[in-house]
Design goal:
10 strands; binds S-adenosylmethionine; Rossmann fold; alpha/beta; 11 helices; about 40% helix; seven-stranded mixed sheet
Length: about 280
């Protein structure tokens, strides 16, 4: 590992929380090479100097886009979406029957497939949800990924990953070589850039948070901090969905597993003792 790569690893950890592998210099350089070429940056060492000097925010954003892994698919792993529809949604609808309001956050939404999968799932319950205000917010650190999500254009290959033909025909229309999510579904979701290293409290409180397949990239202390911030914006009776290979373990005692290890709830907060008169 060169000194330049050691410096770059520290910078990526500070910018995104990602712990790049010690032996991944070659991979990092090949991902970065189109960005370096486009910005006429000679090499990794020069890049680290520019990042330290905060000289070129556009370049830094493109570096983050290049270094993040935006792998995703529609209804990825399937089971969480079934769990959401069959168990989580009925519980929340019963609990929110008076306010008729639900807020859902996909906190590492990548190119949007997870968000649209949730929107399709909720659309199936449209009759029961008539009169409800349902917000679905998708955020990601990668501006390029969020741009794709917002547009809702997907290739034939992408729609073949996880979408049934009936979902495809109902919620998408042909667009150039691929498909576009229809306006009805796009109008039900919102996207924005958000770094999980920042404070989410301005986003408000959520009934459901999907934060799947991103904690695996973080060092344990970053994971712990991210989870405790998520705990701060999850409703006391809300649900947190993680990726199938992810677990909270010792990282955040605020959460307890629900039916399986991928769905978590907040443990009840200890009630303050009443002072006796
Ligand atoms: C592998 S994708 C997972 C996408 C989706 N949640 C899923 O499970 O299919 C991980 C996403 O996390 C995003 N990410 C990485 N670090 C992040 C951070 N610090 N804040 C927000 N998003 C981040 C990446 O840009 C990427 O889009």
């Amino acid at each position: 590992m060169t000194l330049a790569y050691a410096r770059f690893r520290r910078q990526m950890a500070a910018l995104t929380g990602a712990a790049l592998g010690l032996d991944r210099q070659y991979v990092a350089e090949s991902r970065l090479s189109p960005v370096l070429r486009a910005h006429r940056v000679a090499d990794l060492l020069e890049l680290t100097r520019i990042i330290d000097a905060h000289e070129n925010e556009t370049l830094i954003r493109e570096v983050v886009d290049a270094m993040t892994n935006n792998e995703t698919s529609f209804f990825r792993d399937r089971a969480p979406f079934d769990e959401f529809r069959e168990r989580v949604l009925p519980q929340l609808m019963a609990a929110r029957a008076n306010v008729k309001r639900l807020r859902i956050w996909c906190a590492a939404a990548a190119t949007g497939q997870e968000v649209y999968s949730l929107a399709m799932t909720l659309d199936h319950e449209a009759r029961a949800l008539r009169g409800w205000a349902v917000e679905i917010l998708g955020t990601d650190i990668s501006g390029a990924a969020i741009e794709v999500a917002r547009k809702g254009f997907y290739s034939q290959f992408e729609v073949q990953r996880g979408l049934s033909t009936s979902h495809l025909l109902r919620y998408f229309h042909r667009h150039e070589e691929g498909w576009r999510v229809n306006e009805h579904l796009r109008a039900r979701v919102a996207f924005g850039e958000f770094n999980l290293l920042s404070d989410p409290s301005l986003l408000g409180t959520f009934d459901v948070i999907f934060c799947r397949n991103v904690l695996i990239y973080f060092e344990p202390e970053v994971k712990r901090d991210v989870l405790s911030r998520l705990a701060g914006v999850l409703a006391q009776d809300g649900f947190l969905f993680l990726g199938s290979a992810e677990s909270i373990g010792e990282a955040c005692p605020a959460f307890a597993p629900v039916s399986n290890e991928s769905v978590w709830r907040l443990r009840s907060r200890p009630q303050p003792k009443l002072a006796l008169a």
